[in-house]
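Appendix B, Record 12. Input sequence as logged:
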Amino acid sequence: MSVNIRKLRQLIIFFASHEMVKPLGRTKLFKLLYFTDVTHLQTIGELLTGAEYLKYPYGPFSLQGDFALKELKKHGLIKQERVQITDKDSMLALTTLQIPDMTIFTESEMVTIYYVIEQYGKDTASALSWKSHQEDAWLFAKEWMPLQLSLDKPNTESKNKNAAAIAWVEQWYATPDDQPPHYWDELEELLKTSPITFGDEDLDL
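Logged structural output:
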């Protein structure tokens, strides 16, 4: 399947305009594009945008997506500006005043897009990177090489086993660094009595 640049551009505008994914940086954008394509592949049988994803250190990255983003920025349809996310921290966020043309997407594609918004929209870039690193396509790819995306859905039992770990990681990423001493003591004691497993390995704190 060849890449559909038109859909790729409108999907980027859609994510940049949606309140549920803000603040949206480049890393988070590429993870949302990846999960949109892989979710559609595993439910419908084909990629939504047709983009190719490479194994980069922070997770799947699309050269076509990067090209589409640069074109949108070049024509002033997407802007990148520094926004304050906490009293101490700021980030370069993607914003737009454009209204995306969602008429180009099929009904099933729209279902996929809103599913991704619900599942991943509130995640931080760090949490999404971590989640993408649990994907078989990323795990078995060589650095900087294309991911071999599969039609197979993730194993539900394995996914459920890792649900607690994912929740903990998301909480950890979302928690400011200036917490008082012993903030995580209760959680550490819980993990000692009920270890979280990743396949055959325990989560070692």
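Confidence is low (pLDDT under 50) at residues 196-205.
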